[in-house]
Amino acid sequence: MAGDKGISAFPESDNLFRWIGTIDGAAGTVYEELRYKLSLEFPDGYPYNAPTVKFLTPCYHPNVDTQGNICLDILKDKWSALYDVRTILLSIQSLLGEPNVESPLNTHAAELWKNQAGECLPSGCIRHHGSGLLLAELPTGPTQGYSCPPAPGHGEDDSCLQTCLGNNLPSQGRYLMQGLV
Q1: One GO molecular function term (predicted)?
Q2: Residue 88: φ, ψ to 5°
Q3: CB atoms within 10 A of CB 90
Q4: What is the pLDDT of residues 7-29, one digit of tens each?
Q5: Number of structural domains in the chain
Q6: Hey, which of 100, 104, 106, 125 would disulfide with 145, CB 3.0 to 4.6 Å?
Q7: Which residues are catalytic?
């Protein structure tokens, strides 16, 4: 399956019941410029039973848990045999920018989203890379987001932040490092 911008999926090998998909974060969301890899496993009863879809790339989101499980109604009780792989991936891509914070799998991410919506998150404060997420709350304005790539000695103190961000690290503010793995 190819052709739609920002999504793709192909069988993992000769097994047509296991696929690998990719989703690009939608423009204008905090996930813009990020690419996620997903697994899709189709049950024997497909298309009458929904596939199991999981994020393989860590994703910090209210509707995605730390194991990559996704809370999305069309993958559960709202499943229809009319849905195809394209529909599934486009729905997940849409979910990235419009989470259901009333039914979260990741309550911490949901609280951040609720508390910062309209002020910080839409402008891109959540950025993640590999196994780390860093939120930097600046005293003079909205929250800024930075990526902290995994590295030996990677930790939650200012030395890690200084190493990751170099001179871009603000001299004042609160920092939160959240491991995603």
Answers
A1: ubiquitin conjugating enzyme activity
A2: -60, -50
A3: 16
A4: 999 999 999 999 999 999 988 88
A5: 1
A6: 125
A7: 71
Structure token pair of residue 145: 């987001």
CATH code where residue 105 lies:
3.10.110.10
Instruction: Work out the pLDDT band at 174, boundaries 50, 70, 90.
Output: very low
Alpha carbon of 34 to those of 5, 81, 155: distances in Å? 14, 30, 23
Asked if 55 and 36 count as a contact pair (C-beta separation under 8 A), the reply is yes
Strands (E), 17-64: 18-24, 35-41, 52-55
Residue 103 lies in a domain: yes
**Do 47 and 63 form a contact (C-beta atoms < 8 A)?**
no
Q: Note whether residue 145 is domain-resident.
A: no
138 within domain boundaries: no
Which structural domain range is residue 74 located in?
7-117
Residue 138 corresponds to which tokens in the numbers above?
Answer: 């600046």
Q: What is the pLDDT of residues 74-105, one digit of tens each?
A: 999 999 999 999 999 999 999 998 999 999 99
Locate the DSSP E strands across the chain. Answer: 7-11, 18-24, 35-41, 52-55, 128-129, 132-137, 144-146, 174-179
CB-based contact 177:150 (threshold 8 Å): no
Q: How far apart are CA 63 and CA 87, in angstroms?
A: 18
